[in-house]
Amino acid sequence: MMIDSILRLAIERRFFFLSFIFVIVGIGVWNYQKLPIDAVPDITNVQVQINTAAPGYSPLEAEQRITYPVETALAGLPRLSYTRSLSRYGLSQVTVVFEEGTDIYFARNLINARLAAIKSVLPLGLEPEMGPISTGLGEIFMYTVKAESSARMVNGEPYTATALREIQDWIIKPQLAQVKGVIEVNSIGGYNKQYHVMPSPEKLLYHRVSLEDVATALRENNDNRGAGYIEANGQQLLVRSQGQLATIDEILNVIIKQNDGVPVRVHDVAEVAIGKELRTGAATRDGVETVLGTTMMLIGENARTVAKDVALKLDDIKASLPEGIIAEAVYDRTILVDKAVATVTKNLLEGALLVVVVLFLLLGNMRAALITAAVIPLSMLMTITGMVNVGVSANLMSLGALDFGLIVDGAVIIVENSVRRLAEAQHQNGRQDLRERLNTVFEATSEVIRPSLFGVAIITIVYIPIFSLSGVEGKMFHPMAATVVMALLSAMVLSLTLVPAAIAVILNGKISEKESFVISAAKSFYRPALLLAIKFRWLVMLSATILIAFSIWLATTLGSEFVPQLNEGDILIQALRIPGTGLEQSVEMQEILEQRIKGFPEVDKVFARIGTPEVATDPMPPSIADIFVILKSRNLWIDPAKTKDELLEEMEKALKQLPGNNYEFSQPIQMRFNELISGVRADLGIKVFGDNLDQLVLTASDIVKIVNSIEGAADTRMEQVEGLPSLSVNPKREKLGRYGLSVVQLQDWIAAAIGGESAGILYEGDRRFELIVRLPELLRRDIEGLKSLPVPLPNGDYVPLEEVATISIKPSPAQISRENGKRRVVVTANVRGRDLGYFVSG
Amino acid sequence: MNKYQLTLLLLMSIILPVQTSLAGEEEYEEISRINDNLAAQVGIVTTIASPGTINQTLAVYGKVTQAPEHVNVIQARFPGVIQSVNVSIGDRVNKGDRLIAIESNESLKTYSVQAPISGVIMQRHANPGELTQERQLLTIANLDTVWAEFRIYPEKQKKVSSGYSVMVIINEHRIQSHIAHLVISGANEPYMLARVKLDNTKLKLSPGQFAEAKIYTGKFDVSLTVKKEAVQELGGRLGVFVKEGKAYEFNPLNLGKSDDNLIEVVSGLEKGAEYVSKNSYLIKADILKSEAEDND
Question: In terms of CA atoms, which chain B residue is nearest residue A402?
Answer without folding.
Answer: B3
